[in-house]
Every structure is written in C-alpha cells, then in structure tokens.
Predict the 3D structure of the following.
Amino acid sequence: MTAVSVPAPAPAPGAATAPVPEERPALAWLVADSWTVTRRTFLHWRQQPWGIAVGLCFPVLTLLMFAYLFGGGFAVPGDGGYEAFLVPGMLALSVLFGIEGTVLEVVTDASKGITDRFRAMPMAPGALLVGRSAADMATAVIGLVTLVATGRLIGWTWDEGLGRAALAVGLLLLLRFAFIWVGIYLGLLLKTPEAAVVVQVLVWPVGFVSNAYVAPSTMPGWLGAVSEANPMSATVAATRDLFGNPSWGADSWMAENAVALAVAWPLALLAVFVPLALRRHRSLGR
C-alpha cells in the first residue's frame, strides 16, 4: 500500500509543537477524509430533517398519483395489475431524479466557497467527491426503501424470490451511483445554484423518453429507438424481469439483453464521468 506524506500545519509562534504523524496509507487517508465529508451531510440531515423528508415525499406522492389518478387510463400488458407494472418504473425514475440533488449540492458548495476551503486543507485527493457520492448513495438507499414500502402498501410485490429482488435493487443502486458522478461533474461545471435549473429541466425528458410508462413501440420510430437505447429503459426492463412484474414484451435485442445492458450502461457512464469529475475538481481555481 502506498504511503503518502501529509503536510503538518505550521505551529503558532511560541507554541509547543505537538508530534504529528508523518505518513499514513493513502487508502486509509482517502477513507478517513471521505467519511468526514459524508458525515457532514449526515449532520445536515440532523439539523434540517425537513429537507430530506421533502425529498422523500416527492417520489412517494408521484407514485400514489399515478397509481390512483392515472392508473385507470393505462393498458397493462400481461396478467399483473397496474401497480405491478408501475412500481419498477417509478423506482428507476426516482434514481434518475436524484441527480438533481447531487448537482445542487455540488454547485452550492462551490458557490459558497466551501469547496475551496476543503481543497485548501491537507485532504486526500478526491476525498471531497468520494464523500459526496457516499452521502448521495445513502440518500438513494433511504429513498428506495421508502418507495418499496409505499409500493407494498398499494399492493405491489415481487414474485421471483428475495434473491432476484435484491439483484434488481442492486441494479437500481448501480445506475444511481453512475448518475451521482454525472451529477458531480455537471455541478462542478456550473457556476451558480440557479444554473442547476437547466439540469432539472433536462432530466425530465430523459426520464419520460423511456419504457417507464409506455412501450417504445408506441412512439414514432426514431423516438422509440432513442427510448430503447436510454439507460433508464435497460434498468426498468431488467428490474421488471427480476421482480417478476409485467413488461411490454418487446422482442428487440436491447429488450432481450436488458440485464446485461443494465450493468453495462452504468459502468460506461462511470468510466467516462469519474475521470472527468476528478479532472475538473483538480482544475478548479486555476
């Protein structure tokens, strides 16, 4: 394991000099500093619990509205009820919409100078971004648990056993982790929290041009092709299959390989946006 020298703070004139560790493993340094950043978010939750409560209410209210207000207008394929078809799509949409919170947190910290203050400290390179991603993953887990519990209350269930259900949740979290790094990069590009509205506007078409609500085959040809290629569609189709819930029954290559694509798409996004975010973070202030 690589050992990294940590610069010691300059002692005040006349003050006794305390012994400072000269070296510590790079990985331990990264984990410790990342945890400090993550814990900062948890402290914010404790001080402002209404913030996370409001964030959890939005997907729950959206699920209830679609289930009870619009559900009667949708033709459900297969033998399952509308709830069985709707919940996997809503779980994936909540994963996508979480990118808005990531972008807003990153750009707000940058605009308030908090990012620069962290960068001026002897922190492990990348710890600020790793800590941010860990905090947002914790938020995603809480959100998915809340939405799954709500789905159970309105009659949704999984029919393929806990193992395949856990795999479906794992695919949702993998996609959320990829979207977090997309959000971190976009947040580092933006200058003000107001500019984050642009991202919020663009997220909605990405979510709705998918198979979450309607079959891509019902769209115009080019739009249906875009919908099938949407990473959201792969995760939605894969989770419906793993949960044992009804799907659109498409026979395209993408539909038949939805589970593989639900793994490949997030890994591809991570391969692109993690290096971009780290490079952008290093170049801030130059």
Observations:
- The chain is about 70% helix and 0% strand.
